[in-house]
Amino acid sequence: MENVKKIAAEIIGNSLKTIAELMGSVLVKSSFSANIKERRDCSTAIFDSRGRPVVQAEHIPLHLGSMMGTVKEICDRFSGSISRGDVFISNDPYHGGTHLPDINIVTPFFRDNRVVNFTANIAHHSDIGSAHPGGIAGNAQSIYEEGLRIPPIKLVKKGKIDSALLNMIVKNCRIPLERKLDLEAQIATNNIGIRYLEESYNKYGDDAMLASMDELIDYSERRLRSKLKKIPDGTYCFEDKLDDDGVSQEPIPIRACIEIINDRLKIDFSGSGPQSRGAVNVVYSALLATVYYVIKAFLDPELPANAGIGRVLEIIIPDRSILNPAEPAAVGARTDTCQRIAGTLIGAFNKAIPDKAVAGSNDASTAVVFSKENKFVYVEAIGGGSGASGTSNGLDGVQVHITNTSNLPIEVLEAEFPLRVEKYEFVPGSGGGGKLRGGMGLERQIRVLEDDIMFSSHGDRHKIPPWGWDGGENGKCGKFILNNSTILPSKNSGLLLNKGDLITIITPGGGGFGKPITIKYRKSS
Questions:
Q1: Consecutive 10-residue runs of the chain (525 residues): their mean pLDDT?
Q2: Inter-residue contact 201 to 36 (CB < 8 Å)
Q3: Which of 207, 181, 209 is nearest to 197 (CA)?
């Protein structure tokens, strides 16, 4: 009988994963902004009645943290007051989210007048009413500069949309019609998930569905404990640094010690830098999603990403640190720090499992925003090189770790915005040398075709290069250049550009692995 239950859980688990993936496809195809429909900066998931993640579609690893935190907040705040047909909205980093442009939409699913699941999706909106378009400027100094905060609240009540609330939200954003249409697409996406959940419950029965969700979470826990038992007990530490926080020029340490005792994992971030004056702070939900990503990616890529991971995990974070800030710290550029957290954890796991070691990747977001007031906001995170491993070279020009957005095609960029891409190519030699080389970074040149276009950014690895491993060489740093002459800070906001100006974006390469092989040539006689 136990085997029958496990088989049922596998079947139902795949059914739930299919629903989540379908929701993702619907969101991409029904959205209006290039950031969602083309770059796919969005994610979808299904949660149980207690707010535990059951399945997430394979989209953006960082988004899992925002959805987890938001659904848990909704369960805590609205217990007993959730009705059929309600839909919740939230983006507040200090109440479940990770940064303001990521808007969560959460819809409860009922059976026999009780909530049994939530469908959820998150989408990165290109603007949320910040001081500078995009809401991700790296040198913002408080969350009040980063846009409109929306605590968990009902956007739809018993099937009727709160038009006053929706109007208030979109009127506080640039390009309000685009914001409204994308939000409506998010609401519709969850409804599609609800429809297919209803079919699954009718097909398999309530008891089997609920029991299978518990089993899926239990399975992830058992599987991860089994992996941890194979790692030698011990404490393994690694430290890296962010270039700066966009306000001061001081490097910021990110330190992680992982302690493995039998089938338990403790991660201690003590020694990481203090709360930042810039926008690179990371709230707990973003930190947790990054930790989940590294555990899955490094220890077991097939591990289902659900609440079972958290059962074997203890995280220690200093108060008022860059990884545990207090309100109203700015958090819009948190992806650069999350990338560095991921790389630091990988460095620690390299020591624990040397056979799986990998050199440092570009470990940066390299996010840029071009905008013109009331006309457009173009946001993109541009890939770089990944680190080499003991068996292969690093990949060239890819997203790494927790971002995973798609490249915005040049044809779409030039059709939708007054911009022209004049160069888009790999940077030769940017990957660190070694027995196996690191991946190459990218160079992208964008010329503005109108006056009064604003440029903002947040990036990193412009000063401190990606690290090599086991004798491999470091990767090369990235940079932003104005008109082929002026080096720009990696984190800036509100740079006014005029027609003809050229921004060059160079992203970091990955670190090399192993000592370079020296070939000696013998002169012929």
A1: 74 94 96 93 95 89 88 94 97 94 97 96 94 89 95 97 97 95 97 97 95 94 96 97 94 98 97 96 95 94 91 96 96 95 97 97 95 92 96 96 89 96 97 97 98 95 97 97 97 94 98 85 62
A2: no
A3: 209
DSSP H or E stretch at residue 189? helix 176-204
Beta-bridge partner residues of 104: 90, 122
Terminal Cα distance for the chain, rounded? 79
If phi over 0 gives left and psi between -120 and 50 gives alpha, with beta otherwise, what is residue 411? alpha
* Contact between 476 and 508 (Cβ < 8 Å): yes
| C-beta separation of 393 from 517 below 8 A | no
Query: HEC string of 384-445?
Result: ECCCCECCCCCCCCECCCCCCCCCCCHHHHHHHCCEEEEEEEECCCCCCCCCECCCCCEEEE
Name the residue ranges covered by the structural domains of the chain.
2-220, 357-525
- What's the CA gap between 44 and 56, in Å, rounded? 6
pLDDT of 179: 96
Q: How many residues belong to the chain? A: 525
Helix (H) or strand (E) holding 35: helix 34-37
Q: Residue 78, SS3?
A: helix
Torsion of CA 251, 254, 255, 258, to 10 degrees: -160
Reported pTM: 0.94
The string of DSSP letters for 190-259 reads HHHHHHHHHHHHHHH-HHHHHHHHHHHHHHHHHHHHHHHHTSPSEEEEEEEEES--SSS---EEEEEEEE
Residue 411 CA to chain centroid, in angstroms?
A: 25
Cα–Cα–Cα angle for 344, 468, 258, rounded to 5 degrees: 25
Instruction: Give me the residues paired with residue 340 across strands.
Output: none
- The whole-number pLDDT of residue 76 equals 94
Token duo for residue 525? 């006689």
pLDDT computed for residue 65 by the predictor:
84
**Are 253 and 272 contacting, i.e. CB atoms less than 8 angstroms apart?**
yes
Pairing of strands 160-161, 234-242: unpaired
The pLDDT assigned to 1 comes to 52
CA–CA separation, 508 and 465 (whole Å): 7
